[in-house]
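To: structure desk
From: M.T.
Subject: fold request, one chain
Message: Could you run this one when you get a chance? Sequence is below, nothing fancy, just the single chain.
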Amino acid sequence: MLALFWGGSFVAIKEVVNVVPSWFAAAARLWVATFSLYILFKYGMHKSLRLPKGAHVKVWIAGLVTIGIPFAFLFWGERFISAGLAGMLNGSVPLMTAGIVLIAPTKDEEGSLSIRMLIGLGIGFLGIISIFAPLIARPGSQEFWGALAVTMMALCYAIGNVLNKRNFQSIKGLSVYGSVFHQSLASLIFLTLGAAIFNPLPSWENLTAKTSTIPSIIYLGTCSTALALSFYFYLIKKWGSVKTSSIAYLIPVFTLILDGMIFGNVPNFSAWLGMAFILLGITLIRSQKSKRLLKTEIKNIRVQHTKPLVRKAS
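Reply: Done. Structure tokens follow.
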């Protein structure tokens, strides 16, 4: 469901930014999302939205990196590239997350450096280069800058994965619900200020010029943000940053299908080749992590079976 909601978001964003300014569109998404989260958590699930004492700065910074700043990059970048290409670039998030974890691992992801992982990162990087290859030939083009902006979005998402995992490990009593709401609120303030500074307020005639604009904003705020962030943060807490980011495997699939159905766009060979390299690199990284986790589980099982024997002997 998370991959479907986020895969569809790239198509909905493309529909919105063709009509209204990018900063305003991103802020509108967060207005709908923050209100939806408040109603869902406060009254639908009866959850407390308070943060532990002293946690506000860390949570709000994580929110800007995870939501606010990447949304600004994404909405601006998608003005110049297809939804399918944006979804493909988003598929590099697990790759970038693994690279960040190598540099600054969380507590449960230490000792993950290996030759296989380095090879995986290298192959994935070749994939990103392959996607950019046709655009590098015309570096001054709007499509080049749009793709670069969406790549920066993916990098922000990767950093946000690690920051959120660290917050759940280090901030005692931090709930998924409080974290999601406050990160959305911080991003709402950031994007609203950006819209006020950089974009004129669109008229009602512009917003209603296409019948799909307002429904797309509502979809982005409710399904692709409020519900999706709830799923995402729950998985971050339960799975960890690298495993959760692997959801990005499925996002380009949904995006490409919807982009082809709605806009008729078909990626070129270089983009498909780049996506194949990215998926191969991620597969190598994930297989290494799986082996490490398996060894840890086997060790734990041995310890559990050994302890009773020691007690009996004594």
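Reply (cont.): Residues 297 and 303 are 10 Å apart (CA to CA). Let me know if you need anything else for the meeting.
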